[in-house]
UniProtKB/TrEMBL annotation:
<dbReference type="GO" id="GO:0005829">
    <property type="term" value="C:cytosol"/>
</dbReference>
<dbReference type="Pfam" id="PF00814">
    <property type="entry name" value="TsaD"/>
</dbReference>
<dbReference type="GO" id="GO:0002949">
    <property type="term" value="P:tRNA threonylcarbamoyladenosine modification"/>
</dbReference>
<feature type="domain" description="Gcp-like">
    <location>
        <begin position="37"/>
        <end position="130"/>
    </location>
</feature>
<protein>
    <submittedName>
        <fullName>tRNA (Adenosine(37)-N6)-threonylcarbamoyltransferase complex dimerization subunit type 1 TsaB</fullName>
    </submittedName>
</protein>
<dbReference type="InterPro" id="IPR043129">
    <property type="entry name" value="ATPase_NBD"/>
</dbReference>
<feature type="region of interest" description="Disordered">
    <location>
        <begin position="204"/>
        <end position="225"/>
    </location>
</feature>
<dbReference type="InterPro" id="IPR022496">
    <property type="entry name" value="T6A_TsaB"/>
</dbReference>
<dbReference type="InterPro" id="IPR000905">
    <property type="entry name" value="Gcp-like_dom"/>
</dbReference>
């Protein structure tokens, strides 16, 4: 079963084709481009590139797996909209995977997973032997350092961990961004069971940077003050 993997919840614009065969999961092609300001421009060419490299036509795909965040609003939305559109156009299911889970799944032991949330904050969670130990949250690195002090966390992965390792009091390790194959692994059971397509609900954890201005009160006519 061939699956298209997408993730735009971090500066890494990720597209990959994974083969969920009887012998395991194999990546047929992958492209990871780090550019925090060009998700919308680079995702479609990345999809075309991995499909071409894998020798796969869109209608050969059995499902789409996409990272649902947490991540900044604009970048995350690019991947989710693309996945939902392709799912509808091709008539195949789409499944969401927490982006932190994909990073955490590649770890062993007790590890902090942290991605950059901008505004001098990080998206974070603690993982134990690849499984979530805490729910995903957003906070300043100094606050996270306090929160994990009793968790026995000495190691961390993710771009956020690299950026704020000193404040967090941890040793930052690879990977910096979620490995594409981990998205496929985390969704494999749903794909093989041909589970119904899921609502791709973004995990923002906070309001977007750009919001509509509050409605202004109407001006009062003379004599109404």
């Amino acid at each position: 079963m061939l699956v298209l993997v997408l993730d735009t919840a971090t500066p890494a614009i990720t597209a990959a084709v994974a083969d969920l065969g009887d012998g395991g999961i194999e990546l047929r092609a992958q492209r990871v481009t780090v550019d925090g300001r060009a998700h919308g421009e680079l995702l479609a060419p990345s999809i075309d590139a991995v499909l071409t490299e894998a020798g796969v036509k869109p209608f050969d795909l059995s499902a789409i797996v996409v990272g649902v965040g947490p991540g900044p609003f604009t970048g995350l939305r690019a991947g989710l909209v693309t996945a939902a559109t392709m799912s509808s156009a091709l008539g195949i299911p789409a499944y969401g995977v927490c982006t932190l889970d994909a990073l955490g799944a590649a770890t062993v032991g007790t590890v902090l997973v942290a991605t950059d949330a901008r505004r001098r904050e990080i998206y974070w969670a603690v993982y134990r032997d690849g499984l979530p130990g805490t729910p995903p949250k957003v906070a300043k690195p100094a606050e996270v350092a306090i929160a994990i002090a009793s968790e026995g966390v000495l190691r961390a992965v993710g771009e956020g961990a690299e950026k704020y390792a000193e404040l967090l009091g941890v040793s930052a390790e690879a990977p910096s961004f979620p490995p594409p194959i981990e998205f496929a692994r985390l969704a494999a059971d749903r794909v093989r069971a041909k589970a119904p397509s899921e609502p791709l609900t973004p995990l923002y954890l906070r309001r977007p940077d750009a919001v509509e201005p509050a409605t202004r009160k109407p001006a009062l006519a003379a004599g109404e003050r």
